[in-house]
Amino acid sequence: MTDIVAMQSAEPVIFGVVKIVWKDGFAGIVDLRPLLGKGEMFAFLRVNPERFDDLKLEDHGHKIFWLDDEGDEIDFGSESLRQRAERQAGLLHLAS
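Now predict its structure.
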């Protein structure tokens, strides 16, 4: 089992896209738009895209989250975001 690297910072770039820096120094841009475009749990973000800017980083850096209209956390974990960032960076590298 590998250790999960915590995030140091996370900030919205545009709707659905987050810039993240992990505590080991890796930085990446994560495009969440394909996920946010489907599923009822993300409807509150699609209806009010400006709410994407309400992104919060959990105190220990293990997840980012938003609070929906009922006050429930809608979150993404550090490990899955890191995998997505690395995969998307690889795709960008192949395209150039």
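The chain has a mean pLDDT of 91.
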